[in-house]
Design a protein that fits this description.
single chain; alpha+beta; binds zinc ion
Length: about 550
């Protein structure tokens, strides 16, 4: 997720300045690049089992990792972040040699790794995992209590990486194809993870819940949530048939949740319309209450927005429209399409998650409240744009770009919608992205190429302007003697975005470039379509 608030943007900004001053480290490269020790094997399956001991804030467990050999190699990189310890690795019953290099662990494999064969190994881990201070932004384990004094625990790890709490191949390019999660917790508590609940085993003082995810899943999407949960459910009849919706909330919040979560099927309805079928029917859909704001955990979206509309009760757009929906339900569910279905390969391209999902808030309003509401909302969110640095971050070092990926990214997409100038076609493009890149990890370039292919205007310079530069195009214009003269300034090379203007309330398209052009108009003033995210300056 990583929804922004103004304070958080300021924090992000400060930490980004620090990261620009500091050079990237070897650990950043090990974490953020496709190293030779990652490249040779294709991840196919995890069975993660762990026991959580809340009183000691301690976890221990193992991960069975299955993979296909793509080319012969003898060393495998597995990531697990300190202070957790990777204690043992086993293949075919033999203990393996492990060379620890910070958070990366290089495991020697003496058995032959034959091309195209399926192999498996087990890694064991334990310790006191990093505690989240400001979940979900810093990530780790949140060890909290509910109002009745029960443990209320959750993980979150976007950016930081799933290796902050379990050992895995911690790079986004290679998603596991399916996954089984078994979590043991003290009696009186229940664990809720991704996918479908297969069974709950009763042990002496503990219980173990088993969850299965039938679809590829992001590393950071995997989660455990532990609390005194109660469950209710409903069936949503969607584009691909029946979808089971399950809600896990704290016991005391059941009545509130039953009322407030009526927005969930409304959300799915709007997003299936705009983006196509929910991408994980086999895994069901869940909203799970957590002791932090929320996160797009795949098929178990986590929720902590206090059963109120807005973003913790606030309207990020300042227009009033942001109070017509629960920001966390809408935003985090939107990520099922952009983040969980279509996933960035490198976090430098995080706008693919956040810009489309930011825009999904507007599309939710569009579906339920109309186009005008949607437009006012997205324009309203411009007040959060800083234009501090480019939206795309540096590649291969696990670093994201500017927080502008939210409001500026939403406005970038809203601007493309104006260029397309055909809402049905725009909807087909959004649905087409989700079917073309179904369950895939992608780069910005792939999204750009797709859009360029579908839209009757070359967006190359447009994307350079809004994703890779911080300047906002300025339309300079002069009206003299029945003539409108205009040009773009503050633009990248070849920027030639068409623009809709109104002369005496009549719409007219102009095609500015960096060179002065002119057309005859009847009138002495123009209005610029406010749906385009640009500035204008008249002389
Ligand atoms: Zn988000």
């Amino acid at each position: 997720m990583k929804s922004f608030s103004f304070t958080i943007l300021i924090l992000c900004f400060a930490s980004n300045v620090i990261s620009q001053i500091n050079h990237h480290t070897r650990q950043d490269t090990l974490r953020g690049s496709i190293t030779p020790e990652r490249e040779w094997w294709d991840l196919t399956y995890y069975h993660l089992s762990l026991e959580v001991k809340p009183d000691e804030k301690y976890i221990s467990g193992k991960n069975i990792i299955k993979y296909k050999v793509l080319k012969p190699y003898t060393v495998m990189q597995i990531d697990l972040q300190a202070p957790l310890k990777l204690t043992k690795a086993i293949q075919n019953g033999k203990a393996l040699k492990v060379k620890h290099d910070g958070n990366a662990h290089f495991i020697s494999l003496p058995d032959q790794q034959k091309i195209n064969t399926q192999m498996s190994l087990e890694v064991y881990f334990e310790g006191h995992p990093k505690e989240a201070v400001r979940a979900p932004w810093d990530g780790g384990f949140s060890w909290k209590k509910d109002n009745n004094g029960n443990h209320f625990i959750a993980t979150s790890c976007q950016g930081l990486g799933a290796s902050v709490w379990w050992p895995n191949k911690d790079h986004m390019y290679d998603e596991v194809d399916s996954m089984y999660i078994s979590v043991t917790v003290p009696n009186g508590l229940m664990n809720v993870s991704n996918g479908k609940l297969m069974k709950v085993e009763k042990n002496n003082n503990t219980n173990t819940s088993h969850w299965f995810i039938a679809n590829p899943i992001n590393n950071y999407g995997v989660n455990v949530n532990i609390g005194d949960y109660v469950n209710f459910s409903e069936t949503y009849i969607g584009e691909k048939g029946d979808l089971e919706l399950n809600y896990y909330v704290l016991r005391d919040n059941l009545a509130k949740a039953k009322k407030h979560f009526k927005q969930t099927p409304m959300t799915l309805r709007a997003f299936e319309h705009w983006f196509g079928p929910y991408p994980f029917y086999e895994d069901g859909f869940k909203l799970v209450e957590v002791p932090y704001l929320g996160m797009e955990h795949q098929s178990s979206v986590t929720y902590g927005n206090q059963y109120q509309n807005g973003y913790l009760g606030n309207d990020l757009s300042g227009t009033g429209w942001g109070l017509e929906f629960d920001f966390i339900i809408i935003h985090e569910s939107g990520h099922e399409w952009f983040a969980n279905n279509i996933t960035y390969i490198d976090i430098a391209d995080m706008w693919i998650h956040e810009s489309f999902t930011n825009y999904s808030e507007s599309l939710y309003l569009d579906y339920h409240f109309g186009k005008k509401a949607a437009s006012e909302y997205v324009i309203g969110t411009r007040r959060g744009i800083r234009n501090d640095k480019p939206i795309i971050g540096p590649y291969n070092v696990n670093k994201s770009g500017s927080g502008d990926m939210y409001p500026k990214g939403g406005n970038l997409l809203h601007t493309i919608r104006q260029i397309v100038n055909d809402d049905e076609k725009w909807r087909e493009i959004l649905r087409g992205l989700n079917s073309t890149f179904y369950h895939q990890t992608v780069s910005t370039q792939q999204i750009e190429d797709y859009m360029n292919q579908k839209i009757d205007y070359d967006l190359t310079a447009f994307f350079n302007q809004y994703l890779r530069d911080t300047r906002i195009p300025i339309l300079e214009y002069v009206i003299e003697n029945g003539e409108l003269k205009y040009r773009w300034t503050e633009v990248v090379d070849n920027f030639d975005m068409p623009l809709q203007v109104f002369v005496n309330k009549m719409n007219q398209w102009i095609y500015p470039t960096a060179e002065w052009q002119s057309i005859k108009i009847i009138g002495t003033a123009i209005e610029i379509d406010p749906d385009f995210y640009i500035y204008a300056k008249s002389e």
